[in-house]
Amino acid sequence: MAERKIRVDDKWYVLATFAKPEEHPQTIKSDHCFAMFDRTGDISVLAPGQEGLYHEDTRYLAYQELTINGARPLYLGSSIQEANSLLAIDLMNPDLTERGEVVLPKGELHLFRAKLLWQGACYEHLRVSHHGTRPANVRIELAFDADFVDLFEVRGMERQRRGERLPPEVTADCVTLPYHGLDATHRRTRLRFDPPPQALEPHRARFDLQLKPGEERHFYFTVACEREGEPVQPLASYIDAFRANNAARRQVSEAACHVRSSNPLVNLWLDRSVSDLAMLTTQLKSGPYPFAGVPWYSTTFGRDGILTALEYLWLDPSMARGVLEFLAVTQATGIDRERDAEPGKILHEARSSEMARTREIPFGQYYGTVDATPLFLVLAGAYWRRTGDRATVQRLWPNLMAAVRWIDQYGDADGDSFVEYARKSADGLTQQGWKDSHDSVFHRDGRMADAPIALCEVQGYVYQGKLALSEMAEAFGDTVLAQRLAQEAQNLAVRFQSAFWSEERGSYALALDGDKRRCEVLASNVGHCLWSGIAAPEHAQRIADGLLGPAFFSGWGVRTIAEGEARYNPMSYHNGSIWPHDNAIAAMGLARYGRTEDAMKLMAAMFESSLHFDLHRLPELFCGFPRRQDAGPTLYPVACSPQAWAAAAPFAVIQACLGLEFDGETKSVSLRTPRLPPFIDWLRIERLGMPGAFCDLMLTRHERSVGVEVLKKDPGVSVKVVA
Fold this sequence. Notes:
- Helix content is 29%, strand content 26%.
- It has 16 helices and 36 strands.
């Protein structure tokens, strides 16, 4: 790909400057670490790329290559096992020659590599098995290096200067590669070898093997990511790390709600989503938090965390509680223009890499998002309805009230009832809705909209959030506040209809620009207006018809921008691509307005697209080309995979199709006109409900309805089916 200049407004664009030799790297993650390997388990051998071992957005291992007598092994196969926590790879030796003669024919040695992340370290097990008939003498070498590059450099940013690589430290079984950053922090990559190699140098370990026929040898390599100021964890053995990881996974799995269907391919899809969410979810001091996605967004994002938790709420409310607790702790308390922070505003993202700590990037704690604050209210309300957890909601109440004050004072700075955004930071994001690429908000003729910008979906979030807070205030006895918030929400809905509706386009405008002119662009944002309930019933049906029409619906899903709009491009990030979470929100909105058949159509498209993706994994986004016969959807080259809100999307569309609702205070579960798509004959849901009040349901599809059988339930929980 030709090199191009990036405009200032495009500063945070993820560069794709060449075709990578490894288009589908193998990815594993645990807490603050993630790793990307090529299919053989090596890192960046053929060309520099994004592969590596990362900790807190810093690459601690940039190169790794395993060789036999100087040759790379031949690839047999690889798989992600143990619910995304283990990468297993099968290799064999190539023909090994000396002075033109084959001394070891190909395929006599089987090399099995297993890689596991646990508590800031990558544990690797290498097993070498000899299947030949004669003794073999071979040299196994592992080459390695660290570059301590910041993830934003991997994404394409250039730095004028970097920290200092310090001299390596070598012992009989350990190599330490240290680095002193511009943030005055020491980082080090510590590699340990068991058994000790015959020769160990700063960037290479050598093992000399004399193997008898049928003999098997085992080697263990550990790569630890360490930073000054953090406690140095004693390195466990591979077996102990494997067992501890499995025990932690079992503990989470046993407490979770389980969904099973009649369709084995649906089960693979759902299992992959559960595994991806488990991998992306990191245990913080405040509780579990789903990191947004690998590789570019493996950290806390406010909007992503909230929407992921909302999609997954009916299965696991603990994720929502963890998201609410973390965002409350990090809620802005003062004005900081460099970080786009204002009192009561909810975090956009937080990073702790070198460039974040030196403020070369503004994202150490960055607040440049207009929608996370009202969505914080939406999640709190949904969590309350799901669980009836008074203690948590009361603890969060000051944060919820601070969020409302931000909406009314800073979000609506001009007092026109609409929440707008305009970047305060010189280096921050130009666009601050979920479509945050620089060119995502424009007029019908393609001209970019000037700030401050009021997005249509954000007004829906504010409407939805104030109604949710009103409901909670009523439950806690504050009738005056409840009535005020409900009235404000209704007033906003009335103002919204007149300001945003375009009769000519049959849809709400994408946004209002700084002069209050409508951006009359057909955009998927209106699906969010259906979900929030701000759409007038007479408008909702026309919007639904448009979303399922050929301009929006590609056959694989709803595009972010309708075909034919000025900036439509099916290969763009936000102007014509398809995002699974965006489709899930649209499906929830369609079901809200009685269009469950259309919600099932989106579910079918989402499921069918998953069949074409590696590991049945829905990526962050894919291209919006029309569906072609005998061809799958087209990948987007730098999409995150896995991505949290894409992984949670299947569960949101299932909830939409089932009309699944909860009342945590009365411990009741309701299904409103439930439906199942044609490719699911039955659906079994186990451990559905609240702690101490679970039920198991069997749902059976009929032509125009769903039969609901309560298999078992705890005392006090009720199940209702509402036609």
